[in-house]
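quick one before i forget lol
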Amino acid sequence: MLYYHLMETLRKNEYLLTRDLVGEIRQTPEASHYHALIEGTLYDRIHEVIYHTYKRHADWMESETSKNTLASYYADLGRQRREEGIPLDEVIVTLFLIKKRVYRCINERMDLEASYTQKEITDLFLNVGLFFDRMVQAVISGYEESTASRA
């Protein structure tokens, strides 16, 4: 029930989350290569990560196949960003900004304390964090693979 609530909260707020993140990333000096992207492109890229967070998170927790599919997708994303010339640290900073906003949305929009135990809330944040950690790990792997193949 908790993960369904998470998915619904993110789904209902995905437009606001994405819009706010576009603005934040455009203002973040550590993500300067993203500033040059057309707004629609940046919006789509951010939205895709948020979509995966609410649509694929529960499957990812339960299935090795989902983990491999998601890892493959984000490794490809790392390779693409390398080919685009976006520095790896900027890709990671952007993912961290998205993770921070997702955490904030969960905290502000889900009535966690009234409905769930502290352990359930802690597990939710740990699992979302792990989801993003694996995402970052796959991006780094794909990015480095692309860098090695160019050497």
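fyi DSSP finds seven helices and no strands in the chain.
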